[in-house]
Write a structure and sequence with these properties.
Layout lengths: L2 E6 L5 H13 L3 E6 L5 E3 L5 E3 L2 E2 L10 E4 L5 H7 L1 H12 L3 E5 L2 H9 L6 E2 L6 H6 L3 E2 L4 E4 L2 E4 L5 H12 L2 H10 L2 H5 L1
Length: 189
């Protein structure tokens, strides 16, 4: 079974964290939400308190198939300010394992860490300059995959981003079945 860690920092964008968590769990992926604060409760950008499964200090990310960074502000900035998150992302990327970020997180975290140098990526409109400065090619797509890095544009991309991650971690058939069961395919018709 694939294993994913989702980092939650105060100010994370609700749907960019919780839709992928929901979709991946429906698809049989083990998903662990990780608080990067001093408490298990993490407050979203819209004032929703979420109790993470574990606190950062309780985790060993060596078994991660994917590390995921939700966007939102100041959530993405809070992730980048967390030294442990940055070290975990760099170790994951250096090992050739999967890293994913959505909305502001590709620009605020991945770009600043050098992960996007020479890669295609997307992010929330207005953050494109940070991608270019980091040596990335901005696609403007809802979801962009380049090697072991997957990026999503913003809240509206949460479902296609989640289904893409599920297809990478399990398979396309399972992803399509989950999308159909959640009536996502109905939207695209």
């Amino acid at each position: 079974m694939a294993k994913v860690y989702v980092f939650l920092a105060d100010g994370f964008e609700d749907v960019e964290a919780l839709i992928p968590v929901d979709v991946l769990r429906r698809g049989g992926v083990e998903v662990v939400t990780v608080s990067t604060t001093d408490f298990p409760l993490v407050e979203s950008a819209h004032g929703v308190n979420i109790e993470a499964d574990l606190q950062f200090e309780q985790c060993d990310f060596s078994d991660a198939d994917l590390l995921m960074l939700p966007g939102g502000m100041p959530g993405a900035s809070n992730l980048y300010a967390h030294e442990g998150v940055c070290q975990a992302v760099m170790a994951q990327y250096a090992a050739g394992k999967k890293v994913a970020a959505i909305c502001a997180a590709p620009a605020v975290v991945l770009a600043q860490l050098g992960v996007l140098d020479g890669k295609k990526a997307t992010c929330y409109p207005g953050f494109e300059k940070a991608l270019a400065e980091a040596g990335a090619s901005y696609t403007g797509d809802l979801v962009t995959v380049d090697g072991n890095v997957t990026t999503g544009e913003g809240p509206a991309a949460a479902f296609p981003y989640a289904y893409e991650l599920l297809s990478q971690l399990v398979d396309r058939q399972t992803s399509d079945q989950i999308a159909e069961g959640m009536r996502y395919k109905h939207l695209m018709a």
